[in-house]
C-alpha cells in the first residue's frame, strides 16, 4: 500500500508484494500449526499462536511471551519436567 499511494502511485507494489505477503502468511500458519503439534502446546497456546498472525506485529508479541514461558524450546520443557529432585 505504501508503494501504491506514496512512492509510485499505481498498484505495482500491491501486485508484487501482495502475493509475497500471502505466501508468508500461509507459511506462518503452517509453521505455527506444526509447532503446536511438535512442541505439544495446550489448546489456548496453539490458538493464540495461530491468532497472532492476524494483527500487525502479533507474531512478535506471541514469540516473546512464548519464549519467556519456555514454550519454544523442547529441551527446556523436558528439563522443567525432569527438574531437580524428580529422581
Provide tags for this entry:
87 residues, mainly alpha, 5 helices, 70% helix
Q: Your description of this structure?
A:
- The protein has 87 residues and is an all-alpha fold.
- It has one domain (24-87).
- Helix content is 70%, strand content 0%.
- It is built from five helices and no strands.
- It has helices at 2-7, 12-38, 43-51, 58-68, 74-81.
- Helix 3 packs antiparallel against helix 4 (58-68).
- The protein starts with a helix and ends in a 6-residue tail after the last helix.
- The mean pLDDT is 84.
Overall pLDDT: 84
Biggest beta-sheet profile: none
Task: Count structural domains.
Answer: 1
Quote the distance from N terminus to C terminus: 58 Å
Number of helices: 5
> What is the CA-based Rg, rounded?
18 Å
Q: What order do the helices and strands follow?
A: HHHHH
Provide the low-confidence segments as ranges: none
Amount of beta strand: under 5%
DSSP, total strands: 0
The rough form would be described as: elongated
Judged by helices, strands and strand pairing, the structural class is mainly alpha
Helix content: over 70%
